[in-house]
From TrEMBL:
Domain (Ribosome maturation factor RimP C-terminal) ranges: 95-160
Domain Ribosome maturation factor RimP N-terminal: 25-92
Pfam family of the protein (one): DUF150_C
SUPFAM superfamilies recorded: YhbC-like, C-terminal domain (SSF74942), YhbC-like, N-terminal domain (SSF75420)
Organism name: [Mycobacterium] burgundiense
Job description of the protein: Required for maturation of 30S ribosomal subunits.
Keywords annotated in UniProt: Cytoplasm, Ribosome biogenesis
Family membership noted in the UniProt record: Belongs to the RimP family.
Name under which the protein is recorded: Ribosome maturation factor RimP
Matching InterPro entries: Ribosome_maturation_RimP, RimP_C, RimP_C_sf, RimP_N, RimP_N_sf
Places the protein is found: Cytoplasm
Top-rank taxon: Bacteria
Primary site of residence: cytoplasm
Amino acid sequence: MTQRAVSSGGLPTSPQVIELLGAEFERAGYEIEDVVIDTVARPARIVIVADGDTALTLDAVAELSRAASQLLDGVPEVTAAYVLEVTSPGVDRPLTDPKHFRRARTRKVALELADGTTLTGRVAAVEDGLLHVVVRDRSDWSVRQLNLDDIVKAVVQVDFSAPGKRELELVDQTGRGADQ
């Protein structure tokens, strides 16, 4: 977090922050998923949630924070004190877009389907509107294809156990050459 003490006054809106910082984040390989501005906090808090095809590292957060700070500080209308935070969406973020599933490749996810059934498996690939998930099929593993439109809810599961060899083989086989 970077704290900038500036004179009292205004803060940018979320769309203004996205417009100002979007290109800089894209150059670094990330996109701004959300901007939350808390004007009740003292000093005010600007939280930028970023995600990309590669994980947001601490070094990337530091670099993005510095760049965002410089750009925000260069806007004359930004005259209020604020604390800036650049963060990732976190594991509790619902997976709602194909890119979210693509970025969760190899991760274990819990799925709730439109027919009311649930399924837990490891994301192998996303292509042509289908999610390929490695699931336990009795004593072995198999790949299930699910239409993304049939998924009502999806979240990454915190998984401390390493996946088995066969499970990873299926993830790798399915993920090769997929339109990700």
